[in-house]
């Protein structure tokens, strides 16, 4: 079903995909002088686990391929990096990120191979994912849907409209991964609008909840299987800016581009120069 | 129109397994039969119009044809950004049915009136806006657009309205029906259900020796600009009638068309100028209050033509 090469599914290769996502995020955001680095880094392990999982077929051109929705569209660069890693997007194309005329902006759009849904406005992605899952049920297809949400996105009532529909109708083919990195645009989520306990909220909405360390690809990989009895919420506890010490948990990296020195330090921390 | 719309959807869904129906918990007495006939393809999403539009995007991406249903204001304003970033941005065949556009949920008050749906949605390139003028046309419109690949907003009346006098049965895709050709003094354009008043306005004007051209408009977007312009340019006065706020509706469209073509034609917009805050009553009462009922419109036209108005009693 898959038309493009996919990395092997052993833990080591999943971790190397996550590392490659981080390097590309740093390299391209440095070059384009854009922010959202912290958010991209927090989901690098999630995307590596999802896109390397043998449970899903992402890149087929068949209409029966599985569907992925990056509800937290501001981490689009991390999505592009994983699409590059699985061969859906070419390196030469992605190198245009953030330049005039590029199809790669900060938030992903469907002009990009492998992107089924354009996102960016928070609180809209889960509903599209739930619609995609319902479509599979109506059409008698066994295709699956994975959505990655931000924790701040759970501030939005529309996220819960979608969550309640999926829970009420026991949709058996959807997995929502909530990137609980604890940061939102103006501060820590616990300070801005506390949503804890996250797991309980999703459970009350009718979802099976799996809480994992969202920066551990092994734990993530084990938590991704859809459930035949209803929707699954993976509450992924992550570190904002994971992998770069001076970014971890630091709000500034929602916004700032890196200086040359900061970029070199970040690459060094990830184990040397760019993978190029 | 809403009952006929649901009957039509049932007939279409019989042969077309792509059709899925979603309601935001509205449509008592109208939607039940669809649910009975197609339980696997009918969903009440609850009072959750934003999610209804987001889900419709996901359904349409998979090749289905979702028809989402609510009262016009709840179908358009509440989920506006979901319409923009969903069906419109993705160019997917989602159909939004807004019932009771204008001032039809009269005793419910302003929260239930659809007075800016057309104006707000018309700002979105790539969204078709269709306002059937009568019940038979509602069926024709739904049948004619079932394979249209673009998203569509249907503004429906909740009244059942007979085929308008002088209108050819069926529906021309352009959405412009000339009911009568006049003497060149006035061209009168009415949007959707407001077109039901055109024959009476015409008779009232004829009593004063004025023979208007009367035009029923059922499509706002993509706009039938060429046809509207060629009709407007043959007249001294262009008048629009619509149950919608003054800004953004048919009257605005006509002004744009006429100004951009540089026509020397005066425009008079008969639309709702003030918020109906605290105004309750029948459809006729509210229309009269807003001066968009046939008698008020005829009198406004006569005044504009410097003739003596009809006695309104």
Q: Can you lay out the helices and strands and say which pair or pack?
A:
The complex is a heterodimer of chains A (276) and B (313).
Chain A: H1 11-32, H2 37-42, H3 44-52, E1 67-70, H4 76-85, H5 91-94, H6 125-139, E2 145-150, H7 157-168, E3 174-180, E4 183-184, E5 187-188, H8 189-192, H9 198-204, E6 208-213, H10 217-223, E7 232-237, H11 260-269
Parallel strand pairs in A: 1-2, 2-3, 3-7, 6-7
Antiparallel strand pairs in A: 4-5
Helix pairs in contact in A: 1-3, 1-4, 1-11, 3-4, 3-10, 6-7
Chain B: H1 2-15, E1 19-23, H2 32-37, E2 42-44, H3 49-61, E3 65-71, H4 72-76, H5 80-90, E4 95-99, H6 117-121, E5 128-130, H7 135-144, E6 152-156, E7 176-180, E8 186-191, H8 198-206, E9 213-217, E10 219-221, H9 225-232, E11 237-245, H10 250-261, E12 266-272, H11 283-289, H12 294-304
Parallel strand pairs in B: 1-2, 1-3, 3-4, 4-6, 5-6, 8-9, 8-11, 11-12
Antiparallel strand pairs in B: 5-10, 7-9
Explain what this protein looks like in three dimensions.
The complex is a heterodimer of chains A (276) and B (313). Chain A is of the alpha/beta class and 276 residues long. Chain A has one domain (11-269): Rossmann fold (3-Layer(aba) Sandwich). Chain A has helices at residues 11-32, 37-42, 44-52, 76-85, 91-94, 125-139, 157-168, 189-192, 198-204, 217-223, 260-269; strands at 67-70, 145-150, 174-180, 183-184, 187-188, 208-213, 232-237. Chain A has a five-stranded parallel beta sheet with strand order 1-2-3-7-6, sandwiched between helices. A two-stranded antiparallel ribbon of chain A has the order 4-5. In chain A, helix 1 (11-32) crosses helix 3 (44-52), helix 3 packs across helix 10 (217-223) and helix 6 (125-139) packs parallel to helix 7. Chain A is globular, with a radius of gyration of 17 Å. The two termini of chain A are 29 Å apart. By secondary structure, chain B is α/β, with parallel strands linked by helices. Chain B has two domains: 2-156, Rossmann fold (3-Layer(aba) Sandwich), CATH 3.40.50.970; 176-304, Rossmann fold. In chain B, the strands form two sheets. Chain B has a seven-stranded mixed beta sheet, sandwiched between helices. Chain B has a five-stranded mixed beta sheet with strand order 7-9-8-11-12, with helices on both faces. In chain B, helix 10 (250-261) links the parallel strand 11 (237-245) and strand 12 (266-272). In chain B, helix 3 (49-61) packs parallel to helix 5 (80-90) and helix 8 (198-206) packs across helix 12 (294-304). The longest helix of chain B has 14 residues, at 2-15. The model of chain B has no long low-confidence stretch (mean pLDDT 96). The chains are: A alpha/beta (276), B alpha/beta (313). The interface between A and B is medium-sized, with 33 and 28 residues.
